[in-house]
Amino acid sequence: MKYCNQCGAKVELQIPEGDNRERHVCIDCETIHYQNPRVVTGCLPEWEGRVLLCRRAIEPREGYWTLPAGFMENGETTHDGAIRETLEEANARIEVAGLFSMFNLPHADQVFMIYRGQLLDLDFSPGEESLDVRLFAEDEIPWDELAFPMIGETLRLYFSDRLAGSFETHVGTIRRVLKNPRRYQIEMHEAVVPQRPPG
Ligand code: ZN
User: Fold this and answer.
1) Cα of 4 to ligand 1 centre, how many Å?
2) How far is the CA of 76 from the centre of ligand 1 (A)?
3) Would strands 38-47 and 170-178 be described as parallel, antiparallel, or unpaired?
4) How far is the centre of ligand 1, averaged over its atoms, from the C-alpha of 24 (Å)?
5) Whole-angstrom distance, CA of residue 12 vs CA of residue 24
6) Which helix (H) or strand (E) holds 113?
7) Is 197 within the bounds of a domain?
8) Which burial class, exposed, middle or buried, applies to 54 when counting CB atoms under 10 A from its CB (0-12, 13-18, 19+)?
9) pLDDT, tens digit, for every residue of 1-47?
10) Which terminus has fewer CB within 10 Å in the chain: N or C?
């Protein structure tokens, strides 16, 4: 950030009084511009043991497979955001079953939340941001062509819970180890809430 969006003057990094970290502070009107993590919400849409994935039509990771997810909009809930993203990216309608995974992504300043969702019908198709949308059984998942580490981890947890016969809410943190090659470290935390069994 270079300029104040309140008055147009320059901003500079300062530690405001009573604070303990640098913020962008306007040199003229003294507005403190706080920057905080953003929430990505999305869905793992399921149909008779298969999972719906979208192939990304946009960067980052264009051409790779992902779950329908995106930044929350102001004024909506994470639950409603998951329904909206599934409709936008896959033209698919879901009934939300429960929060399935939540990952902290400190390197990206994001929190990532995925709900399980039951597809209401098989009438789906690629939205604006997708090249393709398909249902995958566990042995068909393109593990090497997944867009982001939390997508692979969420899918592994899903099929593992499915096999065990009950779904839980999984909470973890993904840290980037090296920028190039892309390497991440995944740590799961103890925060499990039993959900209703698979249908
Ligand atoms: Zn200002």
Assistant:
1) 5
2) 29
3) unpaired
4) 10
5) 5
6) strand 110-119
7) no
8) buried
9) 999 999 999 999 999 999 999 999 999 999 999 999 999 999 999 99
10) C
| 104 lies in some domain | yes
Instruction: Report whether 198 contacts 131 (CB < 8 A).
Output: no
Whole-number Å distance, alpha carbon 16 to ligand 1 midpoint, is 15
Which residue in the block uniquely carries the two structure tokens 């869905």?
43
Structural domain includes residue 199: no
Q: Please list the helix, strand and coil fractions of the chain in percent, rounded to the nearest 5, in that order.
A: 20, 40, 40
Query: Distances from the Cα of 187 to the Cαs of 31, 40, 149, 157, 184, in angstroms?
Result: 37, 19, 12, 13, 10
By residue range, what is the domain housing residue 142?
Answer: 38-189
Give residue 6 CA to ligand 1 midpoint distance, Å.
5
CA of 20 to the centre of ligand 1 (A): 21
Report how far ligand 1's centroid is from the alpha carbon of 18 (Å). 20
Distance (angstroms) between ligand 1 centre and the Cα of 2 equals 11
Distance 13 CA to ligand 1 centre (A): 13
Alpha-carbon distance of 199 to 195, in angstroms, equals: 12
Nearest 5°: phi and psi at 48?
50, 50
Q: Name the pTM for this structure.
A: 0.89
